[in-house]
Amino acid sequence: MDVLKLELGVFKLELDVLKIQLGVFKLELRRIVVTARRIQVNSRLFKLELDALKLELDVFKLELDVFKIELDVFKLELNVFKKEIYVFKSELDVFKIELEVFRLELDYSR
Questions:
Q1: What is the reported pLDDT for 70?
Q2: pLDDT band, residue 109 (cuts 50/70/90)
Q3: Taking every pair of C-alpha atoms in the chain, what is the biggest distance, in angstroms?
């Protein structure tokens, strides 16, 4: 009878050990799940940061395109200004010629 009680005590202790091992296994499993979730969250965060960088690059490219267009507009306006200067010089030359003609006519009429 004492042997049976001892064997029952040993069996209960072994059962307690198995329960403790099961608890440790559950904790390890939770740790693995938490680590997996952390990796998943970090992966999503990295993807979002990468998407944000791509959007910033797209914005930069668009701003560069706008700058190029503004530069082209400036060049065109500069060319127009040069043409206006040329026209003004030509009109000034015509005015000088007309003035000289007027002076000559005035001298001739005297």
A1: 99
A2: confident
A3: 160
Q: What is the mean pLDDT of residues 32-60?
A: 98
The span from the CA of 20 to the CA of 44, in Å, is 36
Place of tokens 């198995």: 18
One-character DSSP codes across 52-108: HHHHHHHHHHHHHHHHHHHHHHHHHHHHHHHHHHHHHHHHHHHHHHHHHHHHHHHHH
d(CA 69, CA 84): 22
Neighbours of 24 (CB within 10 A): 10
From the number of C-beta atoms within 10 Å of its C-beta (0-12, 13-18, 19+), residue 54 rates as: exposed
Residue 64 CA to its chain's centroid (Å): 13
Report CA-CA distances (Å) from 12 to 17, 23, 25.
9, 16, 20
Rounded to whole angstroms, the Cα distance separating 64 from 1 reads: 93
What pTM was computed for the model? Answer: 0.60
Question: Which amino acid, 49?
Answer: E
